[in-house]
Amino acid sequence: MILPDPATPALLGLDWGTSSLRAWLMDAQGRILHAHYARQGILNLPDGGFAQVLSDIRTQWWLADTVPMLACGMVGSINGWRDVPYLPAPAALFQLADGLGVQPTAHGPLHIVPGVVKDGPLPDVMRGEETQIVGMMGTDGGGHRSVVLPGTHSKWAKVEGHTITEFCTFMTGELFAVLMQHSILGRLPATALPDEGQRDAAFVMGVRTARSGIPLAGRLFSARSVVLRNLLERAYTADYLSGLLIGEEIHAGMGAMDMTPQATPVLVGEQPLCQRYQLAFTTLGYPAPSIAGNTAPAGLFRLACAAGLLDQAPSRFHDQKGAVT
Amino acid sequence: MILPDPATPALLGLDWGTSSLRAWLMDAQGRILHAHYARQGILNLPDGGFAQVLSDIRTQWWLADTVPMLACGMVGSINGWRDVPYLPAPAALFQLADGLGVQPTAHGPLHIVPGVVKDGPLPDVMRGEETQIVGMMGTDGGGHRSVVLPGTHSKWAKVEGHTITEFCTFMTGELFAVLMQHSILGRLPATALPDEGQRDAAFVMGVRTARSGIPLAGRLFSARSVVLRNLLERAYTADYLSGLLIGEEIHAGMGAMDMTPQATPVLVGEQPLCQRYQLAFTTLGYPAPSIAGNTAPAGLFRLACAAGLLDQAPSRFHDQKGAVT
């Protein structure tokens, strides 16, 4: 028996969102061989659209058409390349793998992970995060855990074994952005050079307001009042507001997801933002959650395995003349 | 004894805010003789600034320099004509009258009502609304009541006799505007002509989410999800979001201000917005509050009386040649 070369590309994984695209070339063990990042989200595609972007990536990495492709994110939405219907929660790993959509391309089928929907009077949706959650799932297949994916639209999810049972979206990142860019809260010009220690102090001050008992709508304006009353230098308004919104998310998330203070979730996402969440958790008296980093490639790999996409003929690099080596 | 002509102008009252200016010419009984509205708030003054705007109004109404002037609103802020310090709550009518700032002008002193501040770890401020609240106060001088002033920065206040004892700001109007104009929630284009009945239904649907037990941050995204899940036509997203935010304000305000369901507040402001608040109150199971309209001129008149501004020589119109008649 001939073992495949561990450096042989076995999967092209893509996290294709609204504003950006991340691609990973992985081997048959899920190790990342190459990574690619571009601001080529579904809302800012170049001429040639989806097909051109995909072709460029495959060409850049000299991939044979036999290397399977799996994408997650808004590429599977109604505004994406192919509308892949949401799966209802609770959604198990195998159901996500069975529900892959298929978009034919010049390089073979592009498989696309479905999003997940929570129906009811207050429906909620995710698309892309289900793959990150799969990437975070333990291989033991047991246990209950919860995951927080901070971001523009933060997601809080509960996981039982290999199933996403429940989730909730918080518009924390987008609220922060629109309030700082377009509301009166961002209209106080900075007068000092922000100091890292003071930035953290302002952030913590904002987080603490989550414990005031006053709901968010009645606390937002304090980002202006604390400056007017000289409790905060205006240069730190953004940190205070960030703390106020993240504190609210954690306070509300721990309640809405019915979590015990001990059941601190795992943080999935970029390091600097996750570290701010850690600080907010501890400020509110919870243990510091662990940070899992970006689990999208692991999730894509696991879903590709579950869907049998890797059970194909071994894939190869093209050489520079286009022949398969 | 000669009684003054009831049509003789006795007070020029101004509500001079961030984006607009309202002026009223009143007689010695507080009746409005003339009203003037212009988009000449402190952030969009014409060449010539504050002094020119004031001169134009006085010229338009042929006012003698003996007619006293009282203004409220952002004209008294640090970005206004003269920074008039906030008075701490609880603030009584007589304290507001004693705390008037004075800006000298070519037509005599412009008196300016101070704002009110609530100090503490979560400070809050109002400037302009204190005058509307004074205008709403009963002349009996007794009783406890509460006032809601819907708007960009809605204010909820408690009043005991002639004293503003407590208040809280909700950024409802501004949140609505920035989310509709700049967030993903406003990005779903309308596909149908909004129908009035359906607009109310969408508004009520948004209001009802306040009772879900899920905090605001975890419900905002539903303004998108209900459309994606075909529970709401996208043309009614604005009404749903408006209901969601106003419902939150009422739910949170009744809690934060420690109000019993029976202690329904009085609504002060423009009729169409106050009617939407009425609908939200009844949707959430409260009695419909009464609407007091715009009470700023009554407040300016009452404060001018309390400050003794009307105890001057009777004021007269100029004739068109500038002589006092």
Topology of helices and strands:
2 copies of one chain form a homodimer.
Chain A (H helix, E strand, L loop, with lengths): L8 E8 L4 E7 L4 E7 L10 H12 L8 E4 L14 E2 L2 E2 H6 L2 E5 L2 E5 L3 E3 L5 E3 L2 H8 L7 E6 L4 E7 L2 E8 L1 H11 L13 H13 L13 H7 L8 H20 L9 E3 L2 H13 L7 E3 L2 H11 L19
Parallel strand pairs in A: 1-4, 4-8, 5-9, 11-14, 14-15
Antiparallel strand pairs in A: 1-2, 2-3, 6-13, 7-8, 9-10, 11-12, 12-13
Helix pairs in contact in A: 3-9, 4-7, 5-7, 7-8
Protein name (chains A, B): 2-dehydro-3-deoxygalactonokinase
GO molecular function (chains A, B): 2-dehydro-3-deoxygalactonokinase activity
GO biological process, one term (chains A, B): D-galactonate catabolic process
**Terminus-to-terminus distance of chain A:** 19 Å
Number of helices of chain A: 9
The shape of chain A, in one word, is globular
Global Rg of chain A:
22 Å
Structural class of chain A: alpha/beta
Protein name (chains A, B): 2-dehydro-3-deoxygalactonokinase
Keywords (chains A, B): Kinase, Transferase
GO molecular function, one term (chains A, B): 2-dehydro-3-deoxygalactonokinase activity
GO biological process, one term (chains A, B): D-galactonate catabolic process
